[in-house]
Amino acid sequence: MNNEVTAKKNAFARFLARKDIVFSAKRYGIDALGAMALGLFGSLLIATIFNAIGLIPFLSFFKTIGGYGAQAAGPAMAVAIAFALKAPPLVMYSAALVGLAANSQGGAGGPLAVLLIAVVAIECGKAVSKETKVDILVTPFVTVFVGGVLAILVAPHIGTLVSYIGKFIGWATYQQPFVMGLAVSVVIGVALTLPISSAAICAAVGLSGVSAIAAGMNSSEVYGVALAGGAAVAGCCAQMVGFAVISFKENRWGGLVSQGIGTSMLQMPNIIKNPRIWIPATLASAITGPLATCVFKLQMYGAAINSGMGTCGLLGPIGIVLGWFDKSYPAAVGALDWIGLLLICFILPALLSLLFAYLLRRIGWIKENDLKLD
């Protein structure tokens, strides 16, 4: 009996090896996650930058192009994951539909839903690929069926879990400015780097003075929400600028641009390998958030989604600046506002992250090439 069980296990192991199905943290937590981040950047994030360019007179066609970014994000992430998992062509192409369904059903947790669901669907598709004479039907059917069912049954619950972050932010918005600045900055900043949508969370909560006014809030509530939007910008900028500067030695100018203006999510595979590399940027956000709310009183009166964008296409700072010129903005804008914007969004995140990273390198918590992007 034992020999029979052993033989079955060996046959299954040979089957997995033949299909290149490898159950490992590296394959799913590093390779697939890293590819998904590139897929997100190549769709939604670059489209968001196009939307910003489209605000310039005579360049509105950029906004037309960028408008398709949200629709393309799910398929782009899923296909990128399929490529990382070395999926056959039919599985890879079918993954696009899985990504669309998972991202749509997942809400603010869409990217995380795509990652988890696409991995399962793609591996199932790989398992049946070229095993029948009607492969052109069986392989896409299995891939889409597994991914579609999981998208319907599982993705909404992933979105619900992520929505609790939004509820926490909603609670923090009404706390004392120091506590609110610290909590919102750290949580939204961390969400920006995780495979979830910080921008969607900010949009859902309405982290903008304009959104608060539209919701019928009183003046003190509007002020608190606007400050929370500023704290969210601070946290997101700290993550992006922080990772960009502390990894400059490993990634040079390409890494500086891809993380500083693209997304800090590119570092998630490295964070999984060494979570300590997340400390410098997160500590920086814990400082810049309260400074934004208590010292510079940085308020967001632009679009709420900009509160969760950080320096991606410079949309966080742009949102604040555009808000200054909104008729609803309650105060005159002076030199201190501009100085605060530069310090909170760019200068302090860079200096603080470099300082904390230096200390962690000295004690051996961060080692050479820990921040190297593939």
Write out key terms for the chains shown.
2 domains, 374 residues, single chain, mainly alpha, 0% strand
Task: Report on this structure.
The protein is mostly helical and 374 residues long. It has two domains: 2-153, no CATH class; 159-362, no CATH class. It is built from 17 helices and no strands. The chain has helices at 2-18, 25-53, 60-66, 69-84, 89-106, 110-128, 135-153, 155-173, 177-193, 198-205, 209-214, 219-246, 248-262, 268-273, 279-295, 315-324, 335-362. The radius of gyration is 22 Å and the shape is globular.
Describe this structure in a few short sentences.
It contains 17 helices and no strands. The protein is an all-alpha fold.
Radius of gyration: 22 Å
Strand portion: under 5%
How many helices? 17
Characterize the largest beta sheet: strand count, sense, and whether it forms a barrel.
none
Count of discrete structural domains: 2
Multimeric organization: single chain
Averaged pLDDT: 90
Distance between the termini: 47 Å
* Helix-strand category: mainly alpha
Helicity range of the residues? over 70%
- Form type: globular
Sequence of secondary-structure elements: HHHHHHHHHHHHHHHHH
* Low-confidence residue ranges: none
The number of strands is: 0
Helices and strands in order, then pairings?
Layout: H1 2-18, H2 25-53, H3 60-66, H4 69-84, H5 89-106, H6 110-128, H7 135-153, H8 155-173, H9 177-193, H10 198-205, H11 209-214, H12 219-246, H13 248-262, H14 268-273, H15 279-295, H16 315-324, H17 335-362
Helix pairs in contact: 2-3, 2-4, 4-5, 4-6, 5-6, 5-7, 5-8, 6-7, 8-9, 8-10, 9-10, 9-12, 9-15, 12-13, 12-15, 12-17, 15-17
